[in-house]
Specification:
The protein is 41% helix and 14% strand. The chain is an alpha+beta fold.
Length: 587
Amino acid sequence: MKHICRSLPILLLIILTVCCKKKEHTKISESEKKEVIQSKFAKNYPDFDFKVLQDSLLVTVYSDSILTPYYITTENTPAWIHDTLDVKNLNRLVEILNSVNEHGLNPDLFSATYIKSITDSIDSGSYINKIDTLYSRIATLEKVATKAAIKYISGMKYGFLNPKKLYGTDYDITIATPDSAFYANLYDEIKKDPIEAMLNSQPTDHIYLRLREEYHLLEGKKEENFKKIESGNATFKVGDKNKHISAIAERLIMTGEYLPDSTSTDSTHNKLNNELLAAINTFRRHNSYPEELEVGKLTIDALNRPFEYYQEKICINMERYRWKRTKSKHNKHIEVNVASAMLLADQADNDSLSLISRVCVGSIRNKTPLLQSDISYINLNPYWNVPRSIAQNEVVILQKKDPTYIERHNMKLFKGGKEVDPSSIDWKEVNPSKFSYIIRQEPGGGNSLGLVKFMFNNAFSVYLHDTPSKAAFGRKNRAVSHGCIRVQKPFDLVFFCTAPATELFKDQFYHSIDKTPISEKGKKLLKEDKLKKLPNIINIDKENQISLFIDYYTVYMYPNDSALYYADDVYEYDTPILTELGLNKYP
């Protein structure tokens, strides 16, 4: 076996050499092509022999797993030199690679400076009297330039990083990766025109183009005077006058949220009026913060972020939007953005059915996993089978402090399938880490899952659900759950999933969860005891499939809205992307 492995490079070399011999080549000095004879390269290197270059190229590229198939496919024909060095295309290549910051990338990823250096040295005639060195340098240039082009194209098509390697088991979304068919097509495109192949690989979807546009706009603003607002812990209300309010107004003019009318003066900027408060709340919305009637430290800290902060966010999320999910969306689709703690439900053939809702997601300690699935059924009046970790670390400890806790929260204990009276247990002697009883919370308004939950297959035992704790939806930081997703508008989500939902269906739904029907007809049927309840399990049939993605974007958009929205990096998932792409981190 070892002997075979040692022989493979030699066999490959022989195969490639045979391929090369299919064509005859002449020295440039012997060429009859007018454009070749007149080229700068031909004048500098009249003894250049294309066949010798191919032999040199064999030694340089045969051990590279990405390049070898390309040169086999092209019969060892170089991409960047034929009868003469293709300086024009090489310079265009360098130009494209040096502009990758527009795609949130670092030019150092592609050896652009190195490619330019070798190209210039060859083109300037540095090897006139060093013909052997010339072949070696051209072979190196060919290798580095072709590899850069392949890396660029495959990265633009599929992303430069693999999220599964970045986030491990917390990431359960299947992402497409380059396969043999992709590379076969790629090699053909590079052979025809490597520059056109690179330009055609750039993403063209709406949000990606919007990110590029915003990056360019921010680039033009970077040099503007951007002084920090030093307001300490002060809080401002409508009617207040203060020099810091003027600074806030100036900052919002720079960021674009505040466009005062032409009659406004510097003195009017010192006062927090309703117009300025509206601009502040627009800024808050753009940064995924809740709207408020006051302006305090949280908002001012966000206002103090320089434009580099937003550029960094754009770079990070350009990479995320280059990742291609293999699972397609159904006509009805639900998207949960964990970073922004927002849910969007829409139907491809019915814009009016769109739903936007705040959600609460897993805490930093209990992160919500990123996954793909389909909604399988809706459970009305759900039981909550308390996970063992929550039972041991929370419920038992609270029960030890307050022996009425389990009963007051409508919970029951089970052992071996049989119910156990909580009062029969000496809670003082219970060791929480060894507690083995099953705890189940009964249905009702106080149930931690609320009145409805949305179930889907996944490996993490998470789901979407209602909640009796509504206050958290008004908070900036909504990463507060044990991993499941609490929905602010669960009933609207039910109607989205079951649409077209008739008025009678809605009345039956409300009646099923002990709520008052909404229509007069429904109220009349209830009074006459003729309003039927729905089953507690509402299955989603195959004709009405609803796709679900729980993902993570710190820059995102809403349908029919051209604005970009930014979210704080609650799970610090941005950092690995920054590190791997070699981008400078905003301090």
